[in-house]
Amino acid sequence: MKGPAIPVHAWGPEEARAGAHRLGPCYLAARTVHGCFVLVMPREVALLLRLDVRNHSPTGFEWGYGGSGPAQLSLALLLDALGHPLRHHAVKLYQRFKREVIGRIHGIDSWLIYKDDIIKWCEEVL
After folding, report:
1. Which of 13, 69, 75, 93 has the smallest number of Cβ neighbours within 10 A?
2. 63 is in which domain, residue-wise?
3. Model pLDDT, residue 47
4. CA separation (Å) from 95 to 15, 17, 19, 91, 109?
């Protein structure tokens, strides 16, 4: 059974810096010449790879296909959004989240996803 759709919004770096503080808790992702990065907003800190939990992609995050970079991103997003008390749910669901959400972000180099939408997706598929 497929989980609920999560809106992923295209978002440029300039708009992100100028207005993301008004958006509420979200994750801003960007593909650059140096690799893929994700900022946790509004804290403006980099999303940790979380290689301590699973080591799929020590070289970093990716999206748009079903490989190791998207798996690492899916795991990191779920761990951050759900927090430590619900870590077991993140570990249980991240491969499905990769298939249904992160792996389907095609042709977008900068995007955002809301923390509340990730939590809602997890609640609906559990």
Report:
1. 13
2. 9-116
3. 98
4. 30, 30, 31, 8, 22
